[in-house]
Amino acid sequence: MIGFAAVAFAACSNHDFETMSQEEYDQYQIQQAYNKAFTQSLLDGKAIASNQDWGFSANSYTRAFTRSVDVNGNMWESRPAVTEKEANAIYAYVNRVKSSIPKGTYFEESPITMENFFVTQVWGGQSTDTNCLYLNGDQTVNASKGQEYQASDYILGSSKMNHLQISTSDARLGDGVAELDKTTWDHANNFNAGQNRDWDGNTMFVGWGTKNFAYHSTEDSKYHDKWIIVDGQYITDVDGNHYPGKYYVCFDFIATNPDAYTKFRAKFWNAEGNNGGEWYETNFNIPGVYSLESAKELTYTVTLYDTHKNESYTKTFTLIDGGEEGKSVKDIQIEGYDKGNWIVPANEIYTDWIVRLVEAQPKNDDLTKEIRIVAEDLSASGASDFDFNDVVLDVTFGNPAKVMLVAAGGTLQLKVGSTNGAGGVEVHEALLGAENAKKNEKIYKMVSPGGDVWPVEAVDITSYLSDTNIPDAAAANEKIRIEVYKQGASKEYSWNLLTAPRQEPASKLAVGKSFTILRERQSIKNEFEFFLDWATDANFTSKWW
What we know:
The chain is of the alpha+beta class. It contains 8 helices and 31 strands. The strands form 8 sheets. A 7-stranded antiparallel β-sheet has the order 1-10-3-22-14-13-2. A 5-stranded antiparallel β-sheet has the order 28-25-24-23-31. Strands 6-18-19-17 form a 4-stranded mixed β-sheet, with no helix packed on it.
């Protein structure tokens, strides 16, 4: 009895087991093993959403998409990934002072006029970056001995560059501002975690502009827009490839606070060498203490020295007599104890942070007219097995409908349009021909990205269906039968139906034709950021692919 659905298997009682044939029991065990892997490996043990129909209903794609900044960009054509060769090429190109970069290959005013675009992390930090430093608040200076304050602590520039902002206005920020005009600036969500070049930050902007770019430093509390843009046509990777149509926004990290500290304090030693015991603030008004010259006031000048820039900063403080009954001062120690913002001088090398902009094209899915069915052949056991490319069908609704076979990434015999293996068409043979479809007697060639054969021309298999009146996705789920010939625990083979029961594990999904067919062993959960949310959250409101 091959017509058993997965839902029926899930409800079997002991009496049902007793009356099952060996073939039916094999089918039951195959389905149960797949269901377990689907829930535990693919969904991380989470429950399936109560309204989940796996795309096979009239209302699956009626949700509104209103975000102007779409983290995943699922409503648009897939963004091209940043390759290591590409990242290395742009980094090498700008890893020199700006004056040595050929003029005309970089821009200080934005040449980009995109409204819908992906912004993608390319380069986000180095192991050292010595133009990023601050004056260390834990060090002290003995003013009366004329010691200098040495600045020697360094930080990663890009680790403090975050909160990427993009503007529709070309007005520049000058030395930096604390707040941005929200009518012309928008935050690139999901970017402030990017602290190394391997982090694949991506954000989609819809209906926006590309006139200016800025970052917020957590240690400077101001936005800065010190950047250049390099046109990808001018960079060359190790294989000689150029990147036209891609633009790289390259930042030079700066912090502009003019003072090293917002607060200083002082303590003293008397003539006998005893410590005054307290830190005093507010211009060092020390009660009951006279100056070294026994005068009422004494001014101390302290030099704060920036070892990287080889420049000195002078701070002047006044010691005030606090009373008639005082002691003379032998020494004064002044400490900067509450550092202000970072001091980060510009070095005109724009490698502190690099992001890429690529224009996005809307996906052309009209899911009232057509869908793509992607399916697993019930063999998946781990998360990486769920690539949903074992068979891929493009369905255009109508009476008659049109069904195109696009890919067949499984290795088992698989038919579309059959019942218990009778009728229908074997998918590998339809794409490659019966004489070329197998690797050996039992194993078919994988016709899919990263498989044995790819690409191939899609094949019309509509004539193999017994009913071609398919007006919508629900009818496609019911009338386009997909069966796989699989070995059970008894070592016998049987035909198993691929199903998509509501709120239960599914072996097929309905998506749009713009859905990118995954390579072998690419987990659908890992490749599509919101798949898990879509599968398990009844309130999820975005297209996931």
